[in-house]
């Protein structure tokens, strides 16, 4: 889905995703076909915000109890058994969630839950009615940085970027910081956070800051903003723009994500750049781009185009009135830690003639100066969604994604969906291998929030001998537990 720009901050929050936390262990469950002992572990076991009544916007506001969506994860670079996942808890139908949660493990198998302090539903949480957009990253010294967004729906029009840190692997969280906050006509959206793998104590938070009443021509401006810490998350710099959009009216960015080349310390920020019509009703032009910093985020290069954004509306293929909500417009980048080759996965319709989105991959072998054409990763005859990418230490590229290969013609009442893992040694599509890592589930059982919603993104990270994935599955016949979050490790060689 390509989200339309909001005309007000409250409208914008309807596009958000949120998470919350709890605290119980989770054990391994089952193979993707439903039998035997796990490669997947369910990490969402409790609902710590079940009794929270804060945040209802109107009588039509619905908080889906027991739902966990939009997960992300981080693996400690010193120990692949130390993992932290984050996700939205109790998603609202009209924007964000009651809160964000984290699930942590020290043995790679047994997960415990902690609450992230990003909303009023969380103990000691920030003064915001709802939360969204969870992200997590672990630095070279083991410091875990979590990021999210706090939003108000009834008391104000505030939207804030929030961070917290953990020095015990996700058990507890400190240094709650508001890195930036705005009222209308500004709205902050889609933050991500990256811990620098070579600069101890350094991390970068990036997002798009929408201005719905900019000076001069146009009704929208959406530059990229950055705030960073150099003291392990204790303090963060004043937010500032680093990707400009003012030259072209009605232009915004979205989906900023930084990856760092561990060989050189070079930073690469990837994002989607979208220009809208004068009435903001249609997209005039969209493409993915990147900017580079060689001085730890102090200065940035001019943008380089990476690929055209050819994504189309995410819908049930047999019934386009049933809207889906997944990862269109959001890039997933990675860097090969040995060679510095850059990769970006994304949703696009180049291989379907504009009929539906597939998972596509592009690469650069010259530090992002030039990019090759897209390669098809998901099946040619079935829609693919929400790619995540990681590159292991031997140069194997791994991608995870949802696809609809199990949907039968004429079926409009269910949407059989599965999560796939594709591996490409050294990024070579001729050596591509694929396996299903989830059960087949009905996407239409997920909460509805601008579309049937599993999250605008999922997560994937290299973990030494392979990769670790985190994903959302929907449950059938469980209105009080529509979705759960799972994780598993998979060898890439």
UniProtKB/TrEMBL annotation:
Cross-referenced SUPFAM superfamilies: Sialidases
TM spans (from-to): none
Region (Disordered): 311-331
Keyword Kinase included in the entry's annotation: no
UniProt xrefs under Gene3D superfamilies: 2.120.10.10
Cleavable signal peptide: 1-28
Keywords per UniProt: Signal
Top-level taxon of the source organism: Bacteria
UniProt key word Endoplasmic reticulum: no
Name of the protein in its database record: Neuraminidase (Sialidase)
Protein species of origin: Streptomyces virginiae
